[in-house]
Amino acid sequence: MSQFDLVVIGGGPGGYEAAIRAAQLGFKVACIEKRVHKGKPSLGGTCLNVGCIPSKALLDSSHHYEDTLHGLDVHGISVENVQLDLAKLLARKDKVVDNLTGGVAQLLKGNGIEWLQGTGKLLAGKKVEFTPLDGSEAQVLEPKYVILATGSVPVNIPVAKVDEDLIVDSTGALEFQEVPKRLGVIGAGVIGLELGSVWRRLGAEVVVFEALDSFLPMADKALSKEYQKILTKQGLDIRIGAKVSGTEINNGQVTVQYNQAGEDKTEAFDKLIVCVGRKAYAEGLLAEDSGIKLTERGLVEVNDQCLTSVEGVYAIGDLVRGPMLAHKAMEEGVMAVERIHGHAAQVNYDTIISVIYTHPEAAWVGLTEEQAKEKGHEVKTGQFPFAVNGRALAANESQGFVKFVADAKTDRLLGMHVIGPGASDIVHQGMIALEFVSSVEDLQLMTFAHPTYSEVVHEAALAVDGRAIHAIQRKRK
Ligand code: FAD
Ligand code: AMP
């Protein structure tokens, strides 16, 4: 086998983007990926095969279904005899996945990157053992650099053991062959809310159990409060402070035992999705004498530049600290390669965007009002609703708001929080503003096209100083 400058272990978004950037910079690169998806070796990791992409395909299809059933009447359009072809809906999702994973294979090939189909293991002295999927003999590679990008897997809890039939994790929840009549979801995190929404839209009665006493505690309080209201109105039964303590299978149903407000309760479901978080995946990745240090939580220990405890070995994405998000993994992969090449690249962890792709979407970047106060900022905020935005009303998409958090003394923008139409795209305006260290005034002085959803961004920036035009502002400046 030819000699490689760089071996990337893991072909998810972190790994494959690192491999491509390295090839662009002239490195000879191999990417080891062991995943077999629906019988075929597959690149793209969790994200493309069983994560971001298939979940978004289902979210979009299920939104079309729900909108056709309930959202068209207001436009004066009536549709009769609406039918759901779930097999076709799932097949479309699979096609989208195939298209993208195949695309990554083409990209690697086109960039001259060797995809080694099989398992990688880091040995002492930065060597890599590659065990091919086809059962042929393992080989030892001696690259100059290694990037570990083996991602994460769902957390299992003993009180709800996944049986791939009645109790599934997020992967199983992408494959229900029938819409469950009653569906339980453990965990009101991003994945639980998205998957719960998919099956609710398709007709399931959905109950979401959340052990914590608050809903989405990592989000801005104004956002989480409004968001919980909207999702509840849509019919998601979100039980806060409800800790699942056991499950039992009876007559083809799963009975969930849980405790809420000190009371033990039970409830029966046709299916149960366990969405209680993800954990770094390093099984079989590291020889005992590889020299790589792990944290207590099993993450690979890295510095700000993703360098591990072994010179020349980097680790990125879900395998290391920070939010488990595809875009964070991608940027870390590119940064690691740029560092190897001698560039002073850096990921700005303060501007990593969070999105929940429900309808409406929720998205935020930077500090929440509560975090800004904790950090000692004197805080000012501005919030503006989509309810009075011309474009939102025209589209009948008028739920939610944009909120800015800023420093009252310096006028510096600290955070942006959005619920509403296209929030996942709108929030990028806040990300760019934060990257450029904008003041609120910078945004106030810009001209936003009319009529657009983005005008709410402008109005929210104006509202920080009591200057929003389409609202009666009591505190003006
Ligand atoms: P992964 O994508 O997990 O890729 C790692 C790859 O390494 C895997 O394919 C694995 O097979 C391979 N591997 C592991 N060990 C070895 C080995 N020893 N040898 C060879 N190969 C190995 N994130 C977002 O940003 N937006 C979203 O909308 C979003 N939605 C999600 C929805 C769901 C249902 C789930 C489950 C996740 C979602 N995520 C989302 C999270 C996102 O998928 C991950 O953050 C992202 O995939 C992490 O990328 P990664 O490259 O670190 O790892
Ligand atoms: P996330 O880590 O964002 O995907 O969210 C997972 C959620 O699952 C967290 O908010 C946890 O509090 C919640 N959770 C974990 N275990 C349980 C349990 N036994 N019952 C109910 N909720 C749980």
Automatic annotation (TrEMBL):
The active site is at 450 (proton acceptor). NAD(+) binds at residues 187-194, 210, 277. Its EC number is 1.8.1.4. GO terms for biological process: 2-oxoglutarate metabolic process. Binds 1 FAD per subunit. It is found in: Cytoplasm. It is an enzyme of class 1 (oxidoreductase). FAD binds at residues 56, 120, 150-152, 318, 324-327. Its cofactor is FAD. Residues 4-333 form the FAD/NAD(P)-binding domain. GO terms for cellular component: cytoplasm. The keyword Magnesium does not apply. Keywords: Cytoplasm, Disulfide bond, FAD, Flavoprotein, NAD, Nucleotide-binding, Oxidoreductase, Redox-active center. PROSITE patterns: PYRIDINE_REDOX_1. GO terms for molecular function: dihydrolipoyl dehydrogenase (NADH) activity; flavin adenine dinucleotide binding. It catalyses: N(6)-[(R)-dihydrolipoyl]-L-lysyl-[protein] + NAD(+) = N(6)-[(R)-lipoyl]-L-lysyl-[protein] + NADH + H(+). The active site is a redox-active disulfide bond. This is Dihydrolipoyl dehydrogenase. It comes from Acinetobacter defluvii.
